[in-house]
Every structure is written in structure tokens, then in C-alpha cells.
């Protein structure tokens, strides 16, 4: 199933049919894509969204980065809770959205290292281009 995992109906269907899933996306809220793909993302090194930090942070910036990461995980929990409930009812077992996303065979990520912060990627993540894949003259 080729799907965009931001709305996890495709991963629910792929899990139900027991077929591999391929995710095509730019970015997911709360860094859920990197958590589900099990990419290393320590808050002392990888800056969180909306902090405007680089990888060279002082102690207070690292604390702010940690607080942003914790608060975004709470926001993500409430945002994806209806989908977890839907998936649990449909699949007839307890399942969370990160559990569904961990089943992905391949992640096709449209990352652009000129705009996005470079970070470690897992082998099943394939970078397929930047924000705009077309070449202009």
C-alpha cells in the first residue's frame, strides 16, 4: 500500500490486509516519522521544530529543546488518539499509531538538507528529493 501516513487510514488497511506499506511524505507532526522508523534523535543533538537552534546548543537551549520535545509528544498523543481508537476497534486488538507506522517497509522521504536539519536516517528511509524535485533553468 503506497500511502501518506499523516492520516493513518492507509497503515490501518495495510495492517488489516497483511500487505507491506510504503510511506510517501514530507514530514509528520511531532517527529512521529523518525520515532516510528527508530531513527536516533537525542534532544541534546537534534534540534526540535520551532526552536531555531543548531546542533551547537548551550545548556539552556538544550533544556528548551527537551521541553519542546516533551510537549510535542503530548500534543501528538491527543492528536492521534482518535486514530488509535479506530485502529483498535477495526483490528480488534490494542494498537497505537506509532505501532502502525513501525510496520512500514519503506519510507520515501522528501527531505531537503538545505532546509531540513541533517540527521541520522535508518536504512529503510530513502531520500527521494527536496521540496521541489523539478529542475529549473
From TrEMBL:
InterPro entries: UDP-glycosyltransferase, UDP_glucos_trans. It is found in: Membrane. It comes from Chlamydotis macqueenii. This is UDP-glucuronosyltransferase 1-1. Belongs to the UDP-glycosyltransferase family. Its main location: membrane. It is a single-pass membrane protein. PANTHER family: EG:EG0003.4 PROTEIN-RELATED (PTHR48043), UDP GLUCURONOSYLTRANSFERASE FAMILY 1 MEMBER A1 (PTHR48043:SF161). GO terms for cellular component: membrane. Keywords: Glycosyltransferase, Membrane, Transferase, Transmembrane, Transmembrane helix. GO terms for molecular function: UDP-glycosyltransferase activity. It comes from the Eukaryota.
Amino acid at each position: 500500500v503506497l500511502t501518506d501516513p499523516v492520516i493513518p487510514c492507509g497503515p490501518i488497511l495495510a495492517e488489516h490486509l497483511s500487505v507491506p506499506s510504503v510511506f510517501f511524505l514530507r514530514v509528520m507532526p511531532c517527529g512521529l516519522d523518525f520515532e516510528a522508523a527508530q531513527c536516533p534523535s537525542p534532544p541534546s543533538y537534534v534540534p526540535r521544530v520551532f526552536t531555531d537552534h543548531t546542533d551547537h546548543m548551550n545548556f539552556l537551549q538544550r533544556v528548551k529543546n527537551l521541553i519542546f520535545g516533551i510537549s510535542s509528544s503530548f500534543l501528538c498523543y491527543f492528536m492521534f488518539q482518535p486514530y488509535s481508537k479506530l485502529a483498535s476497534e477495526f483490528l480488534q486488538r490494542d494498537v497505537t499509531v506509532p505501532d502502525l507506522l513501525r510496520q512500514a517497509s519503506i519510507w520515501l522521504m522528501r527531505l531537503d538538507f538545505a532546509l531540513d536539519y541533517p540527521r541520522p536516517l535508518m536504512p529503510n528511509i530513502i531520500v527521494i528529493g527536496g521540496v521541489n524535485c523539478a529542475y529549473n533553468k
